[in-house]
Amino acid sequence: MPDSTSINLVVNGTPYELLIGKDVLPSDTLAQTLRDTLGYLGTKIACDRGACGACTVILNGQAVLSCTTLTVECDGMSVTTIEGLEDPKTGQLHPLQQAFIDHTAFQCGFCTPGIIMTTKALLDKNPNPSEDEIKEALAGNYCRCISHYEVLKAIMAAIRGQKHG
Amino acid sequence: MKPFKHVNARTIDEAVRLLEDNSKAKLIAGGTDLLGVLKDRILPDYPETVINIKTVPDLDYIKEDVSGLKIGALAKLEDIARSPVVREKYTILGEAAEAVATPQIRRMGTIGGNLCQDVRCWYYRSPNQIGGRINCYLKGDKECYALTGENQYHSIFGGLRVTDTPCQSACPGGVAISSYLSKFRKGDLREAAMILLESNPIPSITGRVCPHFCEQVCNRGSFDEPVSVRDIERFIGDYILENANELIRAPEADTGKSVAVVGSGPAGLSTACYLRMAGHRVTVFDKMEEAGGLLTYVIPAYRLPKDIVRRSIKAIENIGVEFKLKVDIGKDITLDNLKENFDRVFIATGAWNPLSIGLDGEESTMFGMEFLANILRGIRQTPGKKVLVIGGGNAAIDAAISSLRLGAEEVTMACLECMEEMPALPWEIEQAIEENVKLMPSWGPHKVLKSNGKVTGMELIRCTSVYDKEGLFAPCYDETVKETVEADCIIMAVGYVTDLKFAEGALETRDGLIITDTETQATNVPGIFAGGAVAHGPATVIEAIAAGKRAAFAMDASLKGPRAADKEDGRAIEPFLKFNTNYLKKTSKLKASKIPVSERTLDIEDTPSSDLSEIETEANRCFNCGCLSVNASDIGVVLMALNAMVNLVGAKGIRTIPVAEFFNSFRNILEEGEIVTEIQVPPLSSDVRQTFVKFRLRESIDFALVSVASVITIKDGICQDARIVLGAVAPRPVQATDAEKVLIGRAIDDGQAATAAQAAVEDAIPLGKNSYKVNIAKEMVRRAILPPEVMGK
User: Fold this and answer.
1) Which residue(s) pair with B509 in the sheet?
2) Cα–Cα distance measured from residue B532 to residue B553, given in angstroms and rounded to the nearest whole number
3) Which residues contact residue B358 at a Cβ distance below 8 angstroms, ignoring those fewer than 6 apart?
């Protein structure tokens, strides 16, 4: 069976058809495609070796490393990036994003999109995780500015906020 | 990433086909290891095609039946860690999966990919972007940099051989040098001798005269000084001569086939010995009174004692090789006679004729080889008071030194080459200088000077260059620069040529050499083979031996018919390469003693034998080069402890092998185009206690410094069975069989656990910077043995 000449990818609800060889090369990572081809610059590339988690996006419901995923292997899949969290109509931030701002859960902010996406995927499956479960889920997201304490506070607050609000 | 083609495989069979069709293809499953390897371009071979097998359906199952647990190769590590059946019964597999890298990677990585991931070593994995890729021994280059470099995270149990070591590759005879040194270090002289004899039947001789190309590429050479293979080879060679009857054995049965060998120099002796060992009747013909060719008649006795040569030949005669001497081919016998009377013929007649250079007065000079032969025949006459030797090779040096030892007052050696280009070996030149030979490099012979019919000297002209741009011999002279050397004897040692009159009209030749096949030494005439100087020109003894061996194997194969392919039934686990870590510091090469210049003679060997302790020290200096990386997969460690099997599918079909065997070859046992498809774990009895411990610096992303998996069966308080496997301590997982033995049949208490832990690291040979890993390994084994309630887990 010949491989298709294009791939279909939905990013934050927007469908894209990408021609292989033109829009994407077989060697392009999802992180490259999102940033360089489609302009979703919220996804960060830091180590580019799958070690830091900064490039984490949600692919078909799973938090994965977009730097270690080939775009051509994502045909028919749906991606959510940090840009996809705000309300598309009102532009209002997602409660998780707002909680990170409220708790100053970042310093330089480079790792933040990855941390938020990992957290979002966790909460989608487990809306009420324990602190340990959050720590475990975020074990692959590194932060050089030591924002982890504030991150944990922010996430716990977001969970509480959702529960009560 | 550098571009590649990408193909989705729909079935495993399709993936196997794609791998077969694309020699430069790589499989991608989870991709978490592969993409890093590609981005960093750590491998010299970049794939043209990446074959995706995630598109193969239904290969991510985790299921259990009566025969145990079965996991499809594409099962994700996270799914394995969370699988109820794994968590309930195969707990250590779940723990190991859970301990891999990070949640994201566990979500993407597959169990098949985890087993197949490349080794860990920071030299090996150093990104191309950082000052260029490091081409280490595992990538086919010569050296493992971890041995004497930064080895904090490397093997503590020794290395694994990947390809031939540089020394073995450099040896024209392909002698497995590190292997025989390894046996020697263990005190197994006999086995060392047998390995040496596999490639060289006269090591006592080569141990004295071989230039030892092996030493020039020895990895130790870039650390301090190369291992003196020469002295060790000589020692073991002499041991072989002492025990020749035991070590060089006659065949158990005769094949009834016959082979004639013409010439009994190194090529002829080598062929004769190997053919006889293979069971053929071998007759060696030689025109001289004694066998040995240049070994007997050219190389001076002070370098190669003649009793060594005679005993080496005797050992070959003793296994049933017949020597017919004073038989000159072309005169006493013909090629046709031999063809008629023997099943195969090997021509190794050497190169014995002087090369005439058309010099004015050349007829008044002496031929170097004849000069040396006469000395060895016992004709001891001072060639002259003032001797001039023309030539820059080892025969010229031999002629010069021999002249001095025959009583010449002044010996000069002139050659076309400049000092650096002289073909003689550096230590030969050193010796010539030491013995007062006057060297005149860059001078060409021009005219023999005579007075009253007697030689009085030679006029030399300046040689400005010897080789042209292509490296071909094309000397250029400046005739305006002249020098006269007084001499009453001129010895020409400028080259030797073959005498091929006997072969005229039969054997194809080129430039005075018989044309032979490079692999088989076959000539154009079926059944006739040739090797040594008659086919390749004058070269080294070991090159002649190698040609003789090649010819012997080809003749043997053609006489016996194609050999039945060796059956591979269950490969033995290859032991780790050990070396003496005390010698990883700077040491000096053995300097074999030499008798003082004033006491040197023509007949007594200049270099006495080294004693055993010196040779042992030198053998300890061998790095026993191998790869010192560590295996990366903790899952592999656990699967080995669980006695798991792995299914491999390739072009030749399916095979199921133990995981232990999977890791036996380097990286893994996968043949080109083979794919891991399933992992099978046998059921565990209820008496089994399984433990997995992983020691690492950070709880996330990090690889193990040491991991240990244990599966221990306890009945009535007594250990019935134990499997303990260590990871990240050697290039493949290490089963601690000694530790297991300590436990089996005993109650496990603190004392037993400590004893077993000690046994697990008894064999460790830590490198300069990783002895801490031995302590960690020991403690991890102890923790993996004691029950969790004791460990307070």
Assistant:
1) B514
2) 15
3) none
Task: Judge whether B35 and B27 are in contact, CB under 8 Å.
Answer: no
- For B466-483, the pLDDT digits (tens) are 999 998 899 999 999 999
Contacts of B370-379 spanning 24+ positions with Cβ under 8 A: B371/B399, B371/B402, B371/B491, B372/B297, B372/B298, B372/B299, B372/B300, B372/B398, B372/B399, B372/B402, B373/B297, B373/B298, B375/B300, B375/B402, B375/B406, B375/B602, B376/B296, B376/B297, B376/B298, B376/B300, B376/B301, B376/B306, B377/B297
Nearest residue in A to B5, CA atom: A26
| Partner residue opposite B10 with nearest CB, options A1, A49, A69 | A1
Tell me which residue has tokens 């716990």. Answer: A156
CA distances from B595 to B605, B607, B608, B733 (A): 9, 6, 8, 52
Q: Which two tokens stand for residue B680?
A: 């099978």
Tell the burial category of B441 from Cβ atoms under 10 Å away from its Cβ (0-12, 13-18, 19+): middle
Question: Three-class SS of residue A119?
Answer: helix
Read off the pLDDT of residues B247-260 as tens digits, 9 standing for 90 and up. Answer: 999 999 999 999 99
Instruction: Report how far residue B114's alpha carbon sits from residue B659's, in angstroms, rounded to the nearest whole number.
Output: 13
- Closest-CA distance, A132 to chain B, in angstroms, reads 14
Kindly report the pTM of this predicted structure. Answer: 0.91
Q: Are strands B675-681 and B68-72 parallel, antiparallel or unpaired?
A: antiparallel
Q: Quick one: average pLDDT of B424-438?
A: 95
CB contact under 8 A, A70 and B35: yes
Q: What residues in A contact B47, CB-CB < 8 Å?
A: none
pLDDT grade for A165, boundaries at 50, 70 and 90: very low
Pairing state of beta strands B734-735 and B718-727?
antiparallel
What was the ipTM of the complex prediction? Answer: 0.96
